[in-house]
Description:
By secondary structure, the protein is of the alpha/beta class. It folds into 2 domains: 292 residues, no CATH class; 136 residues, GMP Synthetase, Chain A, domain 3 (2-Layer Sandwich). It contains 17 helices and 20 strands.
Amino acid sequence: MVKAYLDSRMDRLQQTAEKSEQLQAETLQTLLSKGRETLFGADHMFENIRDYDQFRNRVPIRSYESIFPYIERSLNGERNVLWPGSIRWFAKSSGTTNDRSKFIPVTKESLDECHYKGGRDVLTCYNAWQPEHTLFEGKSLVLSGSLHTAADSPFQAGDISAVLLENMPWWMHYFRAPSKEIALMGNWEEKLDRLAEAIIPEDITFLSGVPSWMLVLLKRVLELEGKTQLREVWPNLQLFIHGAVNFAPYRPLYQNLSAGNEIHYLETYNASEGFFALQDRENKNDMLLMTDYGVYYEFVPLNKLDQPEEHALPLESVELGKAYALVITTNAGLWRYLIGDTVEFTSLRPYRLRIVGRTKHFINAFGEELMVENAETALAIACQQCHASIREFTVAPIFQSAHQPGGHEWLIEFEEAPGNLPDFAERLDSELRKVNADYDAKRTGNFAMGLPQIHAVEKGLFYRWMSSRGKTGAQHKVPRLSNDRIWIEQLQALRTCAGQ
């Protein structure tokens, strides 16, 4: 029955892709109509806004800090602030740009018309790729976070995955494991064993979660069972739905765990703020932008981010191969919100894109403009060349001194370390020069930048560091690039304490 339902949805997906610009115009009008009933709409005179040009002239682009006064009033129980009615759910996230907790509003409309709709369309795509699949003869394992709401709070909050699980229609729980009690546990160390023990006897057919944390859980399952391959535990496992981080460095690790039992991989762009894109073609590295989920998109060229209002573009004005900062207006009450992600379009009409980094996650200490995607692409190739694989990594600048050029320092936690680390450093450097012309220019002659300094760290270091910051669990990601040395020095301090 479920498969028949998904078959019927595929036509709608294809039609959506063909009329994205029309759907975006309709979405903006719907959002403005809802916004006229709110305090935010009154403050920005929504009653006088009729088109996109008036909207962009009347409403400034906002960061979390600048929209927080409205969010705070909603947190205190005030009605009709950002969205009609009361907002009772918030996705709590530290983000990846700072250590402060963020409370992202989650409305009934954003749950039904965005997040859950995205989940259905992900399965629709897989159903079209593999029509003979048996996903629904077993259960899914969705690695979720936890809820964080105080008893006397006027609202409820948690990691977005936990919010989705808590609000999920009752019938969907028949298709998932483990119990909600275990899935929503807050203590990651305790939760890890409880999760593993609960899911081992289940017939798990597909996984969904952040690759890094899912890997920790899967390794624990194999350890408890004394197995080396996932097929020995779950012979019908066939799909991994992943997102949040670049999958390329993790793919060899998952392939090693699933040898002899082919697993399909499907990428999504599902954030606390909304579900934005999904991989609609098998074995491709881009995602289809979903334009009928109650989200209106704008794009600011990354080199114009200092003047975002003047340079923001609607969907129909984007170009291929350029990096844009993503701005969203949503049915959760976020208005021209700068989410912090940077994307690049790989095709137009239909609009497909890739996530290439964060607006604050890059290194530009020497004019090299190294983005996360550059680092992950080069690292994946170097690992392939050296028969290595990684668990985690982070990179920071080494600033110039009177006696030596600057450069980049890499801390890498290898799953399988390369046999020759200096050779690995040279291969990584070579690949970075291929994918980033600015990096290549700054590396010329070793004057501004020297060869990357690579440190292979002990296994478990990144986990201990994240734990020390209270950031263990499915919703938290290791920061990859930083323009300062705060994170890398914290990691180095942990290594020193451990006698490394």
